[in-house]
């Protein structure tokens, strides 16, 4: 992956920033919907109206997660909102909203929503311009100029016995991509076992240590045990890092700079806050 860690901030701060990343985009869409005056009730449950704004919020969240905005999606989400409203009303009828555990969960939910809103406001005040993105792009290109990339293929087997048998086939002349398609347990089998161009730190250990010491076209000397299974590695090619274009990198640059911006903002607020333990 081209994107590098921008700044090593406090772990808890990064967690906070990460948790709100997707939610910020959803709330931004929701706030746009609010400006359009979506006040129509899509349904009423025991006299309680469900606003169109709530439906738009769920639609936006679903679209961000890869769904298509279709009538079927909206009908399903409307049914979900009705079900949630019915359940919420029943929980109140049973007094479950008064339980300490429920109250604590509601406090957390409220804090999350408010966190999203203030981070969204900060992002709007400090927009990421193309100029900022290009500076970060060039910084990363420069940092990776001397880094090696490896075109790696692998075959994943369940047992060491299976892996040794496959390694023997490969040494006997069987084509790596053919064996990978037939026997590998990994999804990369569709591509003949190819993992594409990777830097060493994008490979899990102990694969990285093996790959950096391999010659072009070589197979791993023995099967390698990993969490995914027993792996056989082939180094297809090796080259110096080739950067994708600015436009290709832009989505990752935006994501990374936004995460860093949010983390720094949270850290600033924590520094000036009066915190007693």
Tag the structure with descriptive keywords.
277 residues; alpha+beta; Chitinase A, domain 3; 2 domains; four-stranded antiparallel beta sheet; two-stranded antiparallel sheet; 14% strand; disordered N terminus
Number of domains: 2
Strand order of the largest sheet: 4-3-6-5
Helix and strand pattern: HEEHHHHEHHEHEEH
User: Tell me about the biggest sheet?
Assistant: 4 strands, antiparallel
**Hey, roughly how much beta strand do the residues contain?**
5-15%
Nearest-integer average pLDDT = 87
Shape, per Cα inertia axes: extended
Helix content: 55-70%
Radius of gyration: 26 Å
| pLDDT < 50 stretches | 3-38
Task: Describe this structure as you would to a colleague.
The protein has 277 residues and is α+β, with helices and mostly antiparallel strands. It has 2 domains: 176 residues, no CATH class; 94 residues, Chitinase A, domain 3. Helices cover 55% and strands 14% of the residues. The strands form 2 sheets. The chain has a 4-stranded antiparallel β-sheet with strand order 4-3-6-5. The N terminus is likely disordered.
């Amino acid at each position: 992956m081209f994107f590098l860690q921008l700044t090593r901030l406090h772990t808890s701060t990064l967690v906070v920033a990460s948790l709100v990343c997707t939610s910020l985009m959803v709330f931004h869409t929701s706030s746009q919907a609010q400006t359009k005056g979506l006040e129509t009730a899509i349904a009423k449950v025991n006299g309680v109206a469900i606003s169109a704004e709530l439906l738009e919020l769920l639609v936006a969240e679903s679209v961000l997660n890869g769904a298509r905005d279709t009538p079927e999606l909206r009908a399903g989400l409307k049914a979900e909102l009705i079900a949630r409203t019915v359940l919420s009303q029943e929980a109140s009828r049973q007094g479950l909203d008064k339980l300490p555990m429920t109250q604590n969960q509601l406090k957390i939910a409220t804090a999350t929503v408010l966190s999203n809103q203030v981070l969204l406001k900060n992002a709007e005040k400090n927009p990421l311009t193309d100029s900022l993105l290009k500076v970060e792009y060039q910084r990363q290109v420069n940092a990776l100029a001397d880094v090696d990339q490896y075109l790696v293929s692998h075959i994943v087997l369940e047992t060491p016995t299976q892996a040794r048998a496959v390694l023997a086939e490969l040494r006997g002349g069987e084509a790596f991509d053919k064996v990978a398609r037939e026997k590998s347990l990994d999804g990369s089998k569709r591509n003949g076992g190819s993992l594409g161009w990777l830097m060493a730190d994008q490979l899990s250990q102990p694969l990285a240590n093996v790959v950096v010491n391999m010659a072009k076209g070589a197979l791993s000397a023995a099967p390698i045990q990993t969490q995914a299974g027993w792996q056989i590695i082939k180094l297809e090619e090796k080259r110096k890092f080739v950067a994708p274009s600015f436009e290709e990198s832009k989505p990752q640059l935006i994501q990374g700079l936004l995460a860093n911006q949010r983390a720094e903002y949270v850290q600033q607020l924590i520094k000036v806050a009066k915190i007693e333990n």
